[in-house]
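Q: What would this chain look like folded?
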Amino acid sequence: MPHQATPAMFSGAQTPIALTSVHPSETGWLGRLQARNTSATLPHVIGKLQETSVQNLRNLRDGVEAQHIGNPNSDAEIHMTLEAIAWEIARTGTQEFDGFVDECIDLLEAVQEEDGYLNSWGQQLGGYEHFSDAAMGMELFTGGHLLKTAVAFNRIGRGERLMAIARKWADLVVREFGPDKDGYDGHAGVEGALVEFYRETEEKSYLETARALLDRRGQNTMRSGVLGPIFFQDHEPVREAVEALGHAVRQQYLDASVADVVAHTPEDAELRKALVARWESAHLTKLYVTGGLGSRHFDESFGAPYELPASRAYAETSASVADVYVNQRLLQLTGNVRYADAIEKVLYNALPAAVSTEGTKFFSSNPLQVRSRQRDEDNNRIERAEWLNHSTGPTSLTRLIASIGAYAATVSGKTLSIQQWFDGSIDLPSEIGEGRLVIETDYPNSGRIKIRLEGTPVHGARLRMRVPSWCEKHQYNGRSALVVDGYYDQPLVEGFDVTIDFQMPARFVYAHPRVDAVRGCRALLRGPVVYCAEGVDNPQIENLVFQTEAEVLPAEDGQLPVIKVPANFRRKPQALYSHTMIAVDAEVRETTLVPYSTWGNRGTSPMRVWLPTI
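A: My prediction, written as structure tokens:
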């Protein structure tokens, strides 16, 4: 049976509310992000897909012998975009994309094989044995996104045709990879999709197959060229692996899937413990200050603990998107506020930095430093591209942004918890009462938030309001208030009307001393927002040594504020190495820092997040 319009519909310590119950305003930060996604990014992505991934399906339908366009998982780009459209329909009722949706469904129906197999890459390769390239074919990963798309459309009441396609494919997976079979995909993700399909259909074989796929992983045998088992998270069984390793995107999709399975097997304490250990490995020792994950370009992977180079950060967009999925599931499972804090870091930094301000150009890798005269490379871009060779990044962005309302609040019993702050309103779930909560704020420009209830709560209703972990000083209705487990926790009664003030001074932070790459530097943050210096504002940026004072300028309408920081000029050294410290001039210069989320929108120039400081 269809569930409410929410990407991950399960109840643990917390249950998500439907994204249709969350209404960001048109003028708020989140509302503007979603509006740009609808008006610019989605149409642009659809146009590019018509030339690439959709053309593969047309060639198959029409019997045209042509080389496959894109990577083996190119169909996933279509599925992700369709999922984004489903959430947009749920959110706004738009009909703008109906033609694209109908064409894609027609094509998927036309090319799906009798046994349920559906993958344009596998079908265009003459003589290819389906599922035979477990390491790099990504057939299960790609089909998993078909399942998620079908579920999304089913939850908005338009899923009949897609559910039929997806069920044929899911049944094939059960036959080929079920509990009494063997094999698994080098790119995890299908496991969580099967669990979500189980939630929608109540067909238990999908859940059992998901668990079987996880149980098999870790045989230490999967390889492709120079890439070994660690790359594929195949080096250890999932219950024994306690460190985030290998390809960062694959690791995060694996852990999102593990969380989905854990939600339905609460007795599996070993699986849950390993999941939390890997989260702590990634977020306590391998996370960039921007929310990026993955420090190595060679294999797009995690490095060793504290291996976090700034200029060679890979920090793939898709890894940050998948990390949101991991954190949301862990938040629902445990109720621990740290997972909501981790989502916020991505939401205001890594996520918006990956797309240009006009919404039609993209980064795949997201460095924290660009050097003078650095070259633009396919896997290390210093300028956003209109399309990418591997475009699951842009398509992942569209579906996350379209559905982000589902991450704003959760419910447990008679308690509603606000997890992410935004300007707009939340319809009260029936177990909380009737009416809505109105939230007025220009967060993250400021930390002042007004919340009032328009309606009638049930007796005993409560409202929890997240206090961000970065905030050291805050007030509730002008006074101190008790914070319980990271939240203000207050009775929700008729006439509820409060003002919260999270103080947002600019603050300089150090990295852990073992992060060798940025020793002697500090990063500037304000609220959840990370700042950076760009050469377009600061000539000879690489010769500047920054002081640790900051002046926050008033923000222009609809923008985040810029910050002025005094700096001294460092004299150029005469040799590459010297026995003396390079001197700095006494003259002080004023520098301008901008949100990292906006960097690279004014042409190419040097950029750095980590600032050498006096």
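Residues 33 and 347 are 10 Å apart (CA to CA).
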